[in-house]
Design brief:
Keywords: Membrane, Transmembrane, Transmembrane helix
Number of strands: 0
Helix content: over 70%
Radius of gyration: 21 Å
Mean pLDDT: 84
Strand content: under 5%
């Protein structure tokens, strides 16, 4: 009985690891696609990358401040 429980725990851990790996791969693919689309849009519109990233930096700063305030 103890062996069965140990095997079930091992299977659950393996499933969790596999799930995290596949999610990481999907995330990496999505990030790559978004970066390619961003570069294409920047090239087409002629906007500098710095100007295009300003809203992203603003949102990142806001999220960072919210996270820091939540920890206090």
């Amino acid at each position: 009985m103890e062996t069965l429980i140990t095997a079930a725990i091992a299977v659950l851990i393996l499933m969790l690891v596999f799930s995290l790996i596949t999610k990481a791969i999907r995330l990496a693919i999505n990030v790559a696609i978004i970066l390619v689309l961003l570069v294409v849009l920047v090239r087409i519109t002629g906007v500098s990358l710095g100007e295009a990233m300003q809203p992203v930096f603003a949102i990142w700063d806001w999220l960072r401040q919210m996270f820091q305030n939540a920890q206090r």
